[in-house]
Amino acid sequence: MLKIKEMIKFLFNSTQFLFLASGVKNDEGFWFVGVKNSDENILDDKNLLDCHRKELIGTESANDILFAINLNLNNLFDGLEKNKFLINHPLLGISLNIPLDYIEKIFDFWLDTYKDKESWETCLGLLKMRKRISLTNLIKSGSLKGNSKKFAIKVETLHSYKISSLKNNPLNKPMWK
């Protein structure tokens, strides 16, 4: 009997919920991608309103995927700011300037890619490279071949969102106000 309890405890401690949720803090809305050790802990967080994606996976996998999602989003926001697009920076989480379906696309891509080690390593390497330079020129120049080119196109697509307002236009009001 003790072995079963130890096994359950091990499984509980070695798995995490990788999740995508919406939330609000101080009347400011945001998206949030995070890791929690319990399904109940996600919506017990008083700042979170609704859970849009939730996957039970290993702790190391959850942290690796969370790293890739955050790096992807940071790259995306850096590119938008560089091109003078207006971005709201909430105190917590990810700006609502990015639509939920786009955040879900990024979340799903990295979750699915993690399932194949070779694809994961290639895509993560391209993502890290994308932090420094656009992959578009490498794709067009023919510098990338085969799977690298195929994955570079996918990674670059995850960075292609453009906000419709430039810095001098006002932001949309949140839907709950």
Quick tags:
alpha+beta; single chain; 7 helices; flat; 3 strands
Using only C-alpha atoms, the radius of gyration works out to 18 Å
For the biggest β-sheet, the strand order reads 2-1-3
Residue stretches low in confidence (pLDDT < 50, at least 5 long) are: none
Count of runs of 4 or more consecutive helical residues: 7
Number of domains: 1
The 3D shape can be described as flat
| Proportion of helical residues | 40-55%
The average pLDDT is 87
Structural class: alpha+beta
Order of helices and strands: HEEHEHHHHH
Described by strand count, sense and barrel closure, the largest sheet is:
3 strands, antiparallel
DSSP E strands, number: 3
Describe the oligomeric state of these chains in a short phrase: single chain
How much strand content do the residues show?
A: 15-25%
Kindly, what is the distance between the CA atoms of the first and last residues, rounded to a whole number of angstroms?
54 Å
Describe this structure in words.
The structure is a single chain. Helices cover 51% and strands 18% of the residues. The N and C termini lie far apart (54 Å). The mean pLDDT is 87. The protein has one domain (2-157). The longest helix has 24 residues, at 59-82. By secondary structure, the chain is α+β, with helices and mostly antiparallel strands. The protein is flat. α3 packs across α4 (100-113), α3 runs parallel beside α5 and α5 (117-132) crosses α7.
Task: Give a brief rundown of this model.
The protein is α+β, with helices and mostly antiparallel strands and about 180 residues long.
